[in-house]
Automatic annotation (TrEMBL):
Protein family per UniProt: Belongs to the NAD(P)-dependent epimerase/dehydratase family.
Segments crossing the lipid bilayer: none
Domain of life the protein comes from: Bacteria
Pathway annotation from the record: Carbohydrate metabolism; galactose metabolism
Name of the molecule in the record: UDP-glucose 4-epimerase
Species of origin: Faecalicoccus pleomorphus
UniProt cross-references to InterPro entries, sorted A to Z: Epimerase_deHydtase, NAD(P)-bd_dom_sf
Domain NAD-dependent epimerase/dehydratase: 4-200
Amino acid sequence: MKKVLITGKNSYLGSFVKQELNRYPQKYQVQELDMMNPDWKNFDFSEFDVVYHVAGLAHSTPDESQRDFYYQVNTELAYQTACKAAKEGVSQFIFMSSIIVYGSGKVGQKRVITKDTPLDPDNFYGDSKKQAEEKILSIPGSMKIVILRPPMIYGPKSKGNYPLLAKFAGKTPVFPTIKNERSMLFVGNLALFVKRCIDKELEGIYLPQNEHYVSTCDLVKKIAQNHDHKILFISLFNPFVRLFHSVSAVNKVFGNLIIDPSLSAFSLDYQRYSFDQSIQLTEKGDTVL
């Protein structure tokens, strides 16, 4: 049996990974740790085989007033946690970073993340994750370190861009036919990927994603279909979308950002849910397990 400590109590991602591992009580014992309580520093890590670190701030366009707080939580807390894990004999440390460390995608410009793509975050949220990665990877010793850089994660009751887009898709009568490509990751597939990392005692940097890229137009269409809502897709608004290509919000929705499949370890067989299934589960708000 492997003992897994999730550092970040009641987190969105941690809760799904906990659900996944709890399907096999004979193989895993899972515990969560509240990292907002300073007493976490006194918690004994030595009895755990794996630490899955999800505590952090996630907002792709943070307010400047929060800069220091982002580095305190996303960088320093992550590093301190990893150092404690290494010092107390944890075998594997899994850190949730983000594709944001590469920067964002742009409207009308194809962007593919490859093994040679440099880290070039757009803002201090991305930089806080980048610095955390660098500090964690510098920790000496035998502890295996896994860095995960997923694209946009979505699922039942998720936060961020997906629910905003879903709300819009359920109401709008028309939508632009902008052609773009995005990598996405369903939370159920992420949870299985983390399990695979634990089972195989992996180390290294991975960019898990769904099996297929998706366009924003197709995503909106699929969401609308799940609500029996009809949308007219027209090119009339396309010039206006391109006109505002420098606006961050426009690029988040219609920009191009995909991951080269060679970075996503598809051989680990973590594609439990198809794109259609994932949207159905997300829109119904059902459990994914």
